[in-house]
Amino acid sequence: MPGYSDRDRGRDRGYGSSAPRFGGGRSGPPPGKFGNPGERLRKKHWNLDELPKFEKNFYKEHPDLTRRSMQEVEQYRKAKEVTVKGRDCPKPIIKFHEAAFPNYVMEVINKQSWTEPTPIQAQGWPLALSGKDMVGIAQTGSGKTLAYLLPAIVHINHQPFLEHGDGPICLVLAPTRELAQQVQQVAAEYGKASRLKSTCIYGGAPKGPQIRDLERGVEICIATPGRLIDFLEAGKTNLRRCTYLVLDEADRMLDMGFEPQIRKIVDQIRPDRQTLMWSATWPKEVRQLAEDFLKEYVQINIGALQLSANHNILQIVDVCNDGEKDDKLIRLLEEIMSEKENKTIIFVETKRRCDELTRKMRRDGWPAMGIHGDKSQQERDWVLNEFKYGKACILIATDVASRGLAPHKTSPKKTQYAKTKSIVSLLKKVILVLSLFLLSLTSLCILSFSHLKVAGARHDEPQGQQRGKEEWNWATGGHPVA
User: Fold this and answer.
1) According to its UniProt record, which protein family does this protein belong to (predicted)?
2) pLDDT per residue as tens digits for the range 345-381
3) FRET label pair with 428: which of 146, 192, 248, 479, CA 20 to 30 Å apart?
């Protein structure tokens, strides 16, 4: 292979390549106005003998790893709570140089202040670089994004250049637009050294700029399933060149009902691809998905298998009657607001309850803002920025924010949950949300209900409040979202 560390992927994009074509162009009928998403996508029938070959094993064990005994390896795995299931799993790397990344990757890593890889990176990098399918089960905030993106960059730089009409080489499926945007930021930062182009496609934003990115050619596409299905049905992109597939937060995507769309999308990708699945939990639905999509995969688990999430959190469950809930919430907020670090997230079950509680708290003078799926992307981004930068220190949210939040250099001191359907979903949300924050959290307070049932939304609060009041900027004296 040529010297990929020196490749300029912006050079001669789409012209003069003598490499075999992977396919391109636009295909597929226009999407219908009715019916199930993806029903117009035809399942591909692949003949591997006719497909161009591609390379996916780039891993060479570093001499330091070769000299490391299996006893030392097992000691490391035990200390880091790493368990491995599967055949021919490489030894974990302990220092960054042992990954033997190309210079264009190491230069970016060396600019960071990291001392060593996280456990999921230490075991995941050699696996992904070796071209194996894998399942990574780890808490959110464990460094899994880089665990799959850095090998993806190496993978892409060993493939032929994109030609006009080609789709992405690496596809990352994410459950929410917030997570997709975060992954896109990381992909852009680490991909620019080798001039890789990436884009993020998701619902709730104009299609035009996203379509233009795809038509110009991107090596990395981060997408939510619904919007990607729309573009595939409309022939705006294709997945014939895709050889590196990532399912990020697979359990979350299944919880949100994306399984049919995921299966439709995977049907459009060649079966000899490399697939990496990442999940915070390992329920039977995720296990079945892994069995269907992955071949001879290796499973990595960090921590407990039943609910892999951040354990460095004190969880306090206060079971109370519905009538006591609001008073307890106010007393708790008064206690939190008296502290220096006072950012708070309040989770509620429904969008209606989110709006009601936001209005009520703002009338009472609390610096609260609400976010849920019915708000526009512009509005959601604005609210999140107000919360990140401390202009509003109370965020009231539905499941839309249960993952993918990463406030700027700070994190909630305490988080308050207002409603939940079951103790399982409550604890799952608590751990998964707080695990995303990079700074250590000292305590967590949860307000629940007797018998852990969902109480009905209150109807005794005024409903005629103007939406502009919800969008008050507490730092500047207030202005509506443009």
Assistant:
1) Belongs to the DEAD box helicase family.
2) 998 888 888 999 999 888 888 899 999 888 887 888 8
3) 146
